[in-house]
């Protein structure tokens, strides 16, 4: 979903239609793409740069197990409720999005 949304936005940009979009919404993996977009001010005018950063990150090094465990500890102590979803998110998702 992350790569799919990114590909759609790139094609809309190439077709000159990206500036016609008023709202962008998503669920699940597409929100990972949106989070990367929103890190960059004026992302719609710098879409190629954002795309390159996302691709570089996805091809980058894995998050170490030590860093994953540290993140889990941070979540555990910072939340009132801690569940297996938190464990899954940190251990599984970081393998894909590399952060």
From TrEMBL:
Keyword flag Hydrolase: yes
Keywords: Hydrolase, Lipid degradation, Lipid metabolism
Annotated PROSITE patterns: PLA2C
Pfam families the record matches: PLA2_B (PF01735)
GO biological process terms held by the UniProt record: lipid catabolic process
PLA2c domain: residues covered: 1-99
Transmembrane feature ranges: none
Single annotated GO MF: hydrolase activity
Name of the protein this chain belongs to: PLA2c domain-containing protein
